[in-house]
């Protein structure tokens, strides 16, 4: 679990986008109650969310998927997708009945996702994680949300031997795609968490990937996960 930054650090500026007023109010209340966070704006549709994000330059946008005017998927693509000059960190919130959108949300540039019914501490942990530049894949649902729709991902040509990773790095990548955390990967492979972090860093560098989220997408696209 992440801890708040030292006293004196600037608070993490958060924009909340959700079309359900009660949920949005709850998110704002939880986030604003944290000494290391500040809600700088809120809205109920994706178009306004994009406009506010560009105007307010938040550290993190908490983005619902299904919203009017412009859905969260397209809003995420406009804020964090390929070719965006100054991408914004987006943490997508979703529910099980919207899980078909999660893979596309990750491809659109989201830094991670959480379930809407996640406890407050997990939401706050997610915001802090994304704000620090790391990716957040909820271990409880990664296999269900990404794996369930893996058949929709068009595999690229080429075999695993064409991927520029060592056998050990491939093994770590497969475990990442299975939704395992660094500590779980360390336990599975009987290595230290620091060694796992080194492997993850090497994988991202070799494959020119931005974060753990893109690593999961890469694994599925190259037939390394099921």
TrEMBL record:
Q: Which Gene3D superfamilies does this chain map to?
A: 3.40.50.2300
The family database entries (InterPro entries) matched by this protein are listed as:
CheY-like_superfamily, NreC/VraR/RcsB-like_REC, Sig_transdc_resp-reg_C-effctor, Sig_transdc_resp-reg_receiver, Tscrpt_reg_LuxR_C, WalR-like
Q: Does the keyword Cytoplasm apply?
A: no
User: What Gene Ontology molecular function terms does this protein carry?
Assistant: DNA binding
The record ties this protein, via SMART domains, to: HTH_LUXR (SM00421), REC (SM00448)
Keywords annotated in UniProt: DNA-binding, Phosphoprotein, Transcription, Transcription regulation
Which residues are recorded as modified (4-aspartylphosphate)? Answer: 64
Q: Which Pfam families match?
A: GerE, Response_reg
Question: What domain of life?
Answer: Bacteria
Residue ranges annotated for the Response regulatory domain, each copy included: 13-131
Q: What is the protein's name according to its record?
A: Two-component system response regulator
Q: Give the originating organism.
A: Streptomyces griseoaurantiacus M045
